[in-house]
């Protein structure tokens, strides 16, 4: 539409396409920068809440401008090149990582199914391949730093991402088989508003594929519990040990932008995208809001994983990919194929299965909520029940605190 | 080659099931703690010296305050201090310095409810918190509970001299000394009067005896 507008003014078509691409790229990069900043504050707040801490609360109202302070600090810091580093590769690596993540934003939808910067007919393949650019950047960063910790981190990252590429791609297969297309807009459009219309709850094998894809994506974005490449307690900071200043910021930017990419592609492919009920079709702001809500829920899930689960050991991590996720994704793939064969011409069966599955997932959510309530009750009991500790009732303001020690001084004056 | 033993199917699926179960439990615990109050005490922003001061502030976090048995810097309640020097003798590093003078006799109950008799008042009660090691050995033998640990832990001072906590003000000391002088003179007068009366009595008795 914008391209047509520009060509009608008299600009040649190729130039118009470049202008459009530049504008979209500019918007995407700015979105990534702002999103990465804000979500880094959100992540720190969520982590603080999960550990009963306060979190950043000094910069701006409630600490919500902390990301600006961090960004300014990182930009003003000195850009140090370690002695013996390979300068060209060292300078290239952070930008390759940002390119790899930002490139994925070309095929991410922004609410309505067709609101995609480039609706490629091989969108999913493009997504899987462009995010692999990140591993090249990480390996380059690890190699060029001339630091053994960085190299170990880079090698771990290479092993990890190459291993988890396969379950991630296989985990997307059930959705692709159901829809019969690799186009992201087609994958979104085939779903509906209600949960039983989502691809994730289409049948048990799609659900399995969804779970495998989500788990593999966590590993691919190098987040805990799969943060072996940057394992803070083992390797100093992993592959970006030697980086400082804006190059370091690029790594963080890439890591946080990857959370949005994962959330958006999961939402678009498996969780119904920004699809609205038929009665509300065409309400673009509502659709965008729904899409952002779902994406941020997935991002919250990633944070939740990160601050709950401890880090894997390196052999456990490889075991988990090759011995568990890969067979499970194969089960999902073949099961989906068989399910499609069985339910090819019985829409009734498809309806019943998807509704039952949505109901089962709802049951699991209720079970989980009950468990959460139980844990809240448990954690309200103070560990130390000495009188110096505060009780749950007192904490809730139901009873007054115990009276303070009153001095019992009775001065009975008597004549000397 | 050192190979791991092959997993049986039962063990393989058992591991998957236990992985899912433990993750379910762990995720529920971490979500539960997001609904609980934060345990951080934002120290410089709020007065945490006592539970009451925490309640009065606008602070909404952890209300526990400092524990009751916290050993902060020593505080002396001169109203119930009998200047008996026991704390000074108990102190293993001699950071307490007391001088005392005579004063009006008074009887009262100390903090522990024990009856106490005061015959002397402190004109100087200094504690060098730079030396003090917060062992609490002076608090234990105090007969009235006058010396006790407070919950104050902020001990920054501008100079070495300010590290010495002086509990008796110069005015009080002067007052006590003046009163002590008065008492001494009174006692001296009394003594003199008594001696006089005694002498008179003797004088009265003596003639009788002689007679």
How would you summarize the topology of this molecule?
The complex is a heterodimer of chains A (416) and B (211).
Chain A: H1 2-9, H2 13-50, H3 66-76, H4 87-104, H5 123-130, H6 133-144, H7 148-179, H8 184-189, H9 204-220, H10 245-269, H11 284-308, H12 314-342, H13 347-380, H14 392-395, E1 410-412
Helix pairs in contact in A: 1-2, 2-3, 2-10, 2-11, 3-10, 4-5, 4-6, 4-10, 6-7, 7-9, 7-12, 9-12, 10-11
Chain B: H1 9-34, H2 51-56, E1 74-76, H3 86-90, E2 96-109, E3 115-128, E4 147-149, E5 164-166, H4 170-210
Antiparallel strand pairs in B: 1-4, 2-3, 3-5
GO molecular function (chain A): NADH dehydrogenase activity; oxidoreductase activity, acting on NAD(P)H, quinone or similar compound as acceptor; quinone binding
Family (chain A): Belongs to the complex I subunit 1 family.
InterPro entries (chain A): NADH_UbQ_OxRdtase_su1/FPO (IPR001694), NADH_UbQ_OxRdtase_su1_CS (IPR018086)
Short account of what is shown:
The complex is a heterodimer of chains A (416) and B (211). By secondary structure, chain A is mostly helical. Chain A has helices spanning 2-9, 13-50, 66-76, 87-104, 123-130, 133-144, 148-179, 184-189, 204-220, 245-269, 284-308, 314-342, 347-380, 392-395, and one strand at 410-412.
């Amino acid at each position: 539409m914008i391209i047509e507008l520009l060509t009608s003014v008299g600009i040649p078509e190729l130039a118009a396409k470049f202008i459009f691409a530049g504008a979209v790229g500019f918007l995407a990069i700015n979105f990534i920068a702002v999103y990465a900043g804000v979500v880094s504050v959100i992540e720190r707040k969520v982590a603080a809440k999960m550990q009963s801490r306060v979190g950043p609360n000094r910069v701006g109202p409630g600490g919500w401008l902390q990301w600006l302070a961090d960004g300014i600090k990182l930009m003003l810091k000195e850009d140090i090149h370690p002695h013996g580093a390979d300068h060209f590769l060292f300078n290239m690596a952070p930008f390759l990582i940002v390119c790899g993540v930002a490139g994925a934003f070309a095929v991410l939808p922004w609410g309505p199914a067709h609101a995609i910067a480039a609706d490629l007919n091989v969108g999913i393949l493009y997504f899987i391949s462009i995010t692999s650019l990140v591993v090249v950047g990480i390996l380059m960063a690890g190699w060029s730093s001339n630091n053994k910790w960085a190299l170990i981190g880079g090698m771990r990252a290479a092993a990890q991402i190459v291993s988890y590429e396969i379950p991630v791609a296989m985990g997307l297969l059930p959705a692709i088989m159901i829809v019969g297309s690799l186009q992201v807009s087609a994958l979104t459009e085939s779903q509906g508003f209600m949960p039983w219309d989502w691809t994730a709850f289409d049948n048990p094998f799609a659900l399995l594929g969804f779970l495998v894809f989500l788990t593999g994506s966590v590993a691919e974005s190098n987040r805990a519990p799969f943060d072996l490449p940057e394992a803070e307690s083992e390797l100093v900071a992993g592959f970006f040990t030697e980086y400082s200043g804006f190059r370091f910021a690029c790594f963080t930017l890439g890591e946080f932008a990857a959370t949005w990419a994962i959330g958006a592609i999961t939402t678009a492919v498996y969780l119904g995208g920004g699809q609205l009920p038929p009665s509300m079709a065409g309400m673009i702001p509502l659709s965008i809001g729904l899409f952002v809500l779902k994406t941020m829920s997935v991002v919250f899930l990633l944070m939740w994983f990160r601050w709950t689960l401890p880090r894997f050991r390196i052999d456990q991590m490889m075991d988990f990919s090759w011995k568990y996720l890969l067979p499970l994704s194969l089960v999902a793939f073949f099961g989906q194929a068989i399910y499609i064969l069985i339910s090819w011409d019985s829409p009734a069966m498809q309806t019943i299965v998807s509704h039952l599955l949505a109901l089962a997932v709802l049951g699991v959510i209720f079970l989980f909520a009950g468990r959460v309530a139980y844990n809240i009750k448990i954690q309200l009991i103070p560990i130390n029940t000495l009188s110096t500790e505060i009780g749950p009732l007192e904490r809730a303001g139901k009873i007054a605190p115990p009276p303070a020690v009153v001095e019992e001084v009775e001065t009975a004056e008597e004549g000397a | 080659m050192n190979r791991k033993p092959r997993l049986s199917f039962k063990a393989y699926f058992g591991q998957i099931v236990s992985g899912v179960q433990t993750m379910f439990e762990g995720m529920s615990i971490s979500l539960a703690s997001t609904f609980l109050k934060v345990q951080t005490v934002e120290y410089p922003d709020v007065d945490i010296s006592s539970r009451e001061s925490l309640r009065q502030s606008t602070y909404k976090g952890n209300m526990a305050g400092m524990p009751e048995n916290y050993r902060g810097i020593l505080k002396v309640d001169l109203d119930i201090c009998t200047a008996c020097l026991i704390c000074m003798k108990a102190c293993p590093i001699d950071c307490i310095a007391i001088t005392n003078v005579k004063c009006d006799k008074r009887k009262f109950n100390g903090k522990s409810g024990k009856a106490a008799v005061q015959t002397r008042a402190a004109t100087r009660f200094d504690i060098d918190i730079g030396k003090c090691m917060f062992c609490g050995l002076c608090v234990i033998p105090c007969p009235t509970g006058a010396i006790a640990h407070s919950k104050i832990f902020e001990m920054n001072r501008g100079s070495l001299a300010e590290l010495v906590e002086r509990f008796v003000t110069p005015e009080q000391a002067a007052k006590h000394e003046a009163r002590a002088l008065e008492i001494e003179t009174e006692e001296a007068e009394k003594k003199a009067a008594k001696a006089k009366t005694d002498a008179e009595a003797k004088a009265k008795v003596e003639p009788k005896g002689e007679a």
